[in-house]
Amino acid sequence: MVSGSDYPTSNLFLLEVWRMKEILQLNCVDRHDYIRSMAGKMTQKFEKYWGECNLLKSIAAVLDPRYKMKLINFCFPFIYPDFDAAEQAAVVSQSVSTPCVSRVSTARSMYQDHVRTIDVIRPLKSDLDIYLEEDVGEDIDNEFDAFGWWKLNALKYRILSKMVKDILAIPITTVASESSFSAGGRISEGHLPVRYLGVPLIFKRLSAADCEVIVSRISARIDSWLSKHLTFAGRLKLISSVLCSLQVFWTRVFVLPKKIIHLLEQKLNRFLWCGSDVKAKAKVSWDKICVPKKEGGLGIKRLEVWNKASVMIHIWNLFARAGSLWVAWVEEVWEIFLWFDSWHPAGYLLDRYGFRTVYDAGRDIGPKLSSIIRNGEWYWPSARSDNLVEIQSRLSEVVIGGDDLPVWKSSKGVYSCAETWDQLRVKLPSMEWHKVVWFSQAIPRHAFILWLALRDALVIKEKMCSWGFFGPSVCMFCYGCNESWGHLFFDCNFSRQIWRALMSICLIPNPSVDWEEVIRWFVKDLQGTSLKATACRLSLAAVVYHLWWQRNALLHGNTPRTEEDIVSQVKRQVGSRLLAKGSKQSVTKNLALAYNWNLQGLLDY
What we know:
The chain is mainly α and 605 residues long. The chain has four domains: 1-190, no CATH class; 194-311, no CATH class; 313-414, no CATH class; 434-604, no CATH class. It is built from 32 helices and four strands. It has helices at residues 13-27, 33-50, 55-62, 68-79, 82-97, 107-118, 127-133, 146-152, 158-168, 177-180, 212-224, 232-246, 248-253, 258-274, 286-289, 303-311, 313-320, 325-333, 349-353, 355-360, 386-393, 417-424, 434-437, 444-454, 461-466, 485-491, 493-505, 515-525, 531-555, 563-581, 584-588, 591-596, and strands at residues 194-196, 199-201, 373-374, 377-378. A two-stranded antiparallel ribbon has the order 1-2. It has a two-stranded antiparallel ribbon with strand order 3-4.
């Protein structure tokens, strides 16, 4: 856009636009495909905007005493094809020469016309003819005022000066620079860093102050959820689907400062365990949470590792020569280093053979690969060590001038952010019980409490006593034994009755009441996606959830529920889940189990 604080007028337009067209034409034959494509699209827009002949702007240029028709004859060959430039210049010349002031026939004018028919009278020159015949003024003053020039010469060109007022008064753009680049406009004027698509454009390393925007956005989202009564599973879903996604674009563009990474993960951790951004004791450490579910975690990714995997796409774009202006610029200045890059079949020569080999080769540490290639052949100094002999013996395997094929260490040989993250992260042993907790039909809030139980993260009274807590350690269900893990699941008579009642609904007679044996039986004997296996897994998670909920309710003085109430509620919740996620085929294979869970509705479809 051509603009300025002095409201540039139409006589300046043609002088700028021909140069734009010339630059576009040069870039249409650029050696980079991306630049050629971009220039081609811009040229189409230019042609559509300019049209066959922007006559008004051309006439305005003629009326500038510095240019006149000489500017038209100079710049039209750049704007139009050779066969069309002269024709378009003639159109401008004819349009300028056409009288624009009409005459009213009077007695005097009629007499003059009669005299011209009978006498030979020297024709009078118009203001325009006199103006065009004069030499153009020197364009030495960038502050030249076309309006001021015509005002001084108004007596000389009485008729033409009136026409100039109307044409030159047309501005190049209706938007002044102070309007289009002011702080109140769409584009902010200022110094780097400025923001584009929400991220800062900077010329130095990203600082913690530059990242305040993403921190404040996450804090605002957390604050907006404080009034909602969210379960652990609900907060986990918000973290994985909303809070983590807010930082994806930033992690793909920048390497975030470690201070910001720590601050963001701290906010996520606090929100998970207490629902706000205040300090609270975590039930499971953040390191154990940020691993895949099959390794005992919650599937959240560590921000630092994910950030590294995300920005590696820029490395892939360089090697794959992705269509990017940035990649095209890097290719201009990028060369392969002799000792530091992996161009040799042996890999990185410096890492493989050490600095002694560099010394034996009689070369510096920083030369480019092109320094040992002459006329398309290898030009290596005489080998003075076994390592140099080995290096030179394998040079025949390297093709000079051939196209490199970039291959990423992934299943398909191309960049994959997920696979790169999996290679960078620290892996933990797989947990056999992860499929007992996490499966497609699982009820999220039940699964989360079961996950805490299997991670030994539920704070029972026996654990509190080991921490030095002095208080009653009696079981809140039976008031007869101390509350230990084995007693709560399922040695206590209260929990044992509930567990056996639900297993009988699942057609499991005489189930074990030992917690370790129960989990071992689920892992080894209840695999697959059958209706029976699904109902048993749902029942286990529901029993653990409701027993823990009832235990905490009694601990805080709430009204107790009977075994029948809990069994009825579990049966309703698990039955609704099976009805929503089940299929007619799975029900017909086990009608007795279907009737126990009230799944007759699936038979009607």
